[in-house]
Protein: Carbohydrate ABC transporter substrate-binding protein
Organism: Nakamurella antarctica
Amino acid sequence: MTSVRKALIAGSAATALLLSACGSSDTAATPAASSTAAAATSAGSSEAMTSEAMTSEAMTDGSAAGSSGAPAATDAAWCDTLKSQFADISGKSVSVYTSIVAPEDKPQIDSYKAFEACTGVKVNYEGSKEFETQLKVRVSSANPPDIAFIPQPGLLKTLVEETGAVKPAPKSVADNVDKWFGKDWKSYGTVNDIFFAAPLGANVKSFVWYSPKVFKEKGYTVPTTYKELIALSDKIVADGKKPWCAGIESGVATGWTLTDWLEDYMLRVNGPDVYDQWISHKIPFNDPKVVAALEKVGEIVRNPAYMNAGIGDVASIAATKFQDGGLGVATGTCFLHRQASFYAANFPAGTKIAEDGDVFAFYLPAISEDFGKPVEGGGEFVAAFSDRPEVQAFQTYLSSDTWANEKAKATPGGGWVSANKGLDVANLTTPIDALSAKILQDPKTVFRFDASDLMPSAVGSDSFFKGMTTWVRDNASSQSVLDTIEASWPAS
């Protein structure tokens, strides 16, 4: 399923607990919870739709940036450099189209103030819940925005190849990305060896949620290796409890949370090269390597001694709403819940989400030392449909360390992070955001985008979901489930 739909799920959880197996950024908690259960880190591409920090004074329409608050200082070196690169753009305007809508758009809009004050360019912001559909309509009708925030690489590739309307990124943007982002991130904005789109926000999915409070009471230690994770699980069983809890029910998107499990384990069991081959169908979906990874997932997810703490048996995972799957961590009825950073938004207001709090998360350890520090996640990318100087200047700003830090400071409620290596973690306001940023900036991290966002929709948002549901609900064999998914892969 596309990131946009997944964001709808994650975002709904963040606001009213209201779909892709994966994930954007910018998910935030409600004001009542912002000081404790501070907003979830972006869940992946279109988790962006419900992302930005929610405040009572947030915009309620697609207002232009700079409409409130004092402009940022314009005497910084970055501003002088930008103005020297792009002269005579004062008084111009740039239009931005995105899935991040009111009221969550305010931190995005506020983060543009420094650019506007520096250059004199006005940024006109438009958020739409119909972003993905309407963007294609606007591009095909020769009425594209200047810039669009693309929530998944697959959509970027489609727009580039089918419309020819996306402009290659200018050298100033490419230079910024080379300096501030890893090669893996640049590759996701590259189509047919041409670099088009710089990364914007990001999210981390390779997390296991736990309760520091309960761990302290029980004398449990946060595992740093996979062997320790299994040993901890067995210790909890020996203490008379089930360690893990999960839920995958999500309407037509039921099963997406289990696709994240398999994606995480594909990276850990087989490494990034095989992961890339799997996504591009250079190896079949039912390759023995994929079967081995799913069997490894089953050692936890389909283990009746491990699952489903505080809820029921293994089959109950399929009937449990994904929003409810990990709530037992906060109440002490469950000890471990694998889920992305955005899951923070599901805990009740007043829940302290911190390393010394009621709940927190740790990195899902690597299984082998051969593949570095595998991390699954998502993000958005800045695509331009115009190469006017003011548009390129704004692209350059968004790809810089300056913008990343302005954005962090403009998001006081938390719920946003970037893979930009120039982002100062101290500017992030919540512990889970800070942890996500540290993981993304770790030189050992081997990041890969959520696989289902990169696969054909017939697989990534359909047969993959359904297959994983059957696998856990009916205890179907891994081979038969993967065979069925493979059969659904489009012929061309």
Notes: The chain has 20 helices and eleven strands. Confidence is low (pLDDT under 50) at residues 1-5, 7-74.
